[in-house]
Amino acid sequence: MEVIRATDLGIWFKLGKRKRTSVRSFVVGGFKRSPKESGEFWALRHVNLTVNAGDTLGIIGRNGSGKSTLLRAIGGIYPPDEGDVTVRGSVTTQFALGTGFQSELPGVDNIYLNGILMGLSKREIDGMLDDIIEFADIGEFIDIPVKTYSTGMHSRLGFAIAVNVHKDIVLIDEIMGVGDARFRKKCEEKMERLIGERTIILVSHDMNTIRRFANKVLWLDKGQIVAQGEPEEVIQRYLET
Amino acid sequence: MFEQCKNIWQRRELLFYLVTSDLKAQNRNKLLGFLWNFLDPLLLMATYIVLVAVIFDRGGPQFPVLLFCAILAWRWFTSSLSRSVTSVSSKVGVVQTTRFPLAVLPLAIVTSGLVDYFAGLIILLPLLFAFDATFSLHMLWLPLLLLVQLVGTIGAALICAVIGTYLTDWGNILQFGLRLWFFLSPILYSVEGTVPKRYETVFWLNPFAALMESYKNILVRGMPPSEYMVIPVGMAIIVFVIGVWYFGREERKLVKAI
User: Fold this and answer.
1) How far apart are the CA of A232 and the nearest CA of chain B, in angstroms?
2) Taking a C-beta distance cutoff of 8 angstroms, is the pair B126, A102 a contact?
3) Is the ipTM of this complex over 0.90?
4) ∠ CA B111-B115-B120 to the nearest 5 degrees?
5) Shortest Cα distance from A186 to chain B (angstroms)?
6) Deepest in the core among A7, A151, A221, B189, taking most CB within 10 A?
7) How far apart are CA A101 and CA A142, in angstroms?
8) How many of the other CB atoms lie within 10 Å of CB of B213?
9) Residue A241: is it exposed, middle or buried by C-beta count within 10 angstroms (0-12/13-18/19+)?
10) What is the pLDDT of residues A40-85, one digit of tens each?
11) Is A104 an 8 Å CB contact of chain B?
12) pLDDT greater than 50 at residue A35
């Protein structure tokens, strides 16, 4: 069964300073700022893809090729500027982590805050709280304000939340590189259990991660699809360039 | 529009968590913690008492308590607007990684300001006794006045959240505008006997003119709300409708603009 379909998907951004305007350009340019006038670039263009239930799609490509933008478009965070995306089922996004934290508050409060942001109810989080704390494995720091955390602890907590909140479709953006070797192993074991059970889209620069988990690979360059299909084939071509 | 309101209502638990974590975070690491909710308006009141009652020798015997009623309401309004300006852009991390109705961000700020307002009422009560306010059934109008202010503030906060995301200088413009608005509203003074007769009609066009006078009337003077309340009521509804519509239109584009 097909759960994700993108047809001729395109998303553009304004460049640099022009993303947000100052009063002068606001008054002069007025409220209507069309993409043509303000130096836009297409982060994604003419993207067509379908993902079936249970697939694990790996997305590869160089920095700035539109991988994260594609995940966000699928996650409904960026609306398409061109074309169309349809998604059947609920989606969780697991991006570069630790971002949603209210840094003045302890880890536990942030677990609730993040979980509820992701659309869970308090009761659901109550049920998984112990799992999350155990997975994060940051000891007594869980009761201390997040602003005192090290980068590693930050990511661990973020990953622990994301990985325990599972919906039909899981979007993962380069998070396997988080934490030390032991934590990484734990993450991979968790991933292994999800394969086939959920539909997963995985962005990574680590070809071993992609080889290990993905059954389909999509290669993006400058916002366009270069190739998609069998993992080994696409990865070979990508590595040759 | 109803669709949007329904969506927000479905995410009320999220709103609740945003408000409580906002309140908790504000008071953490402060020696006096929650006490600041009481101290802040009191100190502000003291400043203006020095200015108006001591230096200008005006305001009358009930001035402190009249001032306090108005300051509480004003504080709620200004803090809501100035904090809404950055409500979306300061949460860039969550906004760009999780899909949720962004309107909860400014809404949480307005709500947490309302909680501060209620905390202020605890201080108001002894002041009412101390300055010999007239207790009457008119006080029961308070929830309705607050509702009018809430509706208008939500609309304005939604608008500020959108413009503040697109326009980096909006915060500065707003600060200046709010300061001017403060002096144009009957907070430090009362309309009667202060505002020149020929300006009075124009003066009442400011929604805070009738609103502030009404707060003072019902809480201190034992009188019904101002007869000009129709202006704040009308404006609150208009601003609310515009705010919800504008935010709804821009919501998804905001994510890309940050």
Assistant:
1) 30
2) no
3) no
4) 140
5) 23
6) B189
7) 13
8) 25
9) exposed
10) 788 999 999 999 998 999 999 998 899 989 999 998 889 999 999 9
11) yes
12) no
Could you tell me which residues of chain B have a Cβ less than 8 Å from any Cβ in chain A? 13-14, 17-18, 21-22, 24-25, 28-29, 91-94, 96-100, 165-169, 173, 252-253, 255-258
CB atoms within 10 A of CB B67: 24
Give the pLDDT score at A176.
61
H helix or E strand, kind and range, residue A89: none
Confidence of residue A16 (pLDDT cuts 50, 70, 90): low
Quick: pLDDT tens for A85-108.
999 888 877 665 555 678 888 889
As to burial, measured by CB atoms within 10 angstroms (0-12 exposed, 13-18 middle, 19+ buried), residue A134 is: exposed
Dist CA A235 CA A210 (whole Å): 9
Give every CB contact of residue B90 below 8 A, 6+ residues apart in sequence.
none
Chain A residues within an 8 Å CB radius of B169: 22-23
A119 to chain B nearest CA, in Å?
8
Quick check: A70 and A59 in contact, CB under 8 A? Answer: yes
Cβ proximity of A63 and A92 under 8 Å? no
How close does chain A come to B249, measured CA to CA in Å? Answer: 12
Q: Which residue in chain A has the smallest CA separation from B96?
A: A77
> Quick check: A100 and B252 CB within 8 A?
no
* Bridge partner list, A241: none
Length of chain B: 258
- How would you write B172-223 as a 3-class SS string? HHHHHHHHHHHHHCCCCCCCCCCCCHHHHHHHHCCHHHHHHHHHHHHHHHCC
Hey, what are B4's tokens?
């949007």
Nearest to B13 among A79, A105, A116 (CB): A116
Is A118 touching B (CB cutoff 8 A)? Answer: yes
Q: What pTM was computed for the model?
A: 0.88
Distance of CA A80 to the CA centre of its chain: 17
